[in-house]
């Protein structure tokens, strides 16, 4: 559904992404692994229309989108859940969700809200409370919910477990699996390689802007030496 082919992106003259190719299918999670600075966030932002690539092709359901602005990319069905969640703290949970649905016809908003509340009951309980009072894990659910309000076909998720207590990393990643199981394609960057490989379908490992390994999540787990080499010794150690 989403195809990224030989993507090159730079900041000024400094290359950050040097020929990354990756695909995402409906109902499936493609995991992007790689050390800090490898070019993972740049790849997601470039797909989302926030940083134009120097070269390469991005197609969504057969249509070229690599020169589209961010709002057109959202309209094509691709929504970014940025690193750091970026919820609006002073606004209520429901106001945050409504912001995510701003591109949708007003008439459908209530239905979308109910769908999100079904998926994340904690958001329903806290709907009239300030988003800034939610825990980190709850704020991540809100970031997912806000993205889902736009009815995406593909979600780009950047480091959803960053800064969360280890005990809730599993919960957050389980929610990502449920989102994918509803038919949405997910391209996710995540540093918790061990847990993330358990819920992902496919994985690519990037280093210095290039793909150095790609395969099924299962293959990636069994090539643990590859993952360790590029992510460090602790990458596959069980967190608890
Ligand atoms: N806004 C920016 N301006 C200049 N260089 C940047 C900017 N953002 C990222 N970079 C550089 O691009 C490279 C890739 O960064 P990034 O995509 O954020 O990596 P990752 O998400 O894998 O940690 C790094 O070398 C980083 O320093
Ligand atoms: Mg990053």
Describe this structure in words.
With 240 residues, the protein is α/β, with parallel strands linked by helices. It has a single domain, classed as P-loop containing nucleotide triphosphate hydrolases (Rossmann fold, 3-Layer(aba) Sandwich), CATH 3.40.50.300. Helix content is 37%, strand content 25%. It has ten helices and ten strands. It has helices at 40-47, 70-75, 93-100, 109-119, 121-125, 136-148, 166-181, 193-199, 217-222, 224-231; strands at residues 2-11, 14-24, 29-33, 55-60, 63-64, 78-81, 154-158, 185-189, 202-207, 210-216. A six-stranded mixed sheet has the order 6-7-8-3-9-10, with helices on both faces. A four-stranded antiparallel sheet has the order 2-1-4-5, covered by helices on one side. Strand 9 and strand 10 form a beta hairpin. The longest helix has 16 residues, at 166-181. The radius of gyration is 17 Å and the shape is globular. The model has no long low-confidence stretch (mean pLDDT 92). The structure holds adenosine-5'-diphosphate and magnesium ion. Adenosine-5'-diphosphate (ADP) binds next to helix 1.
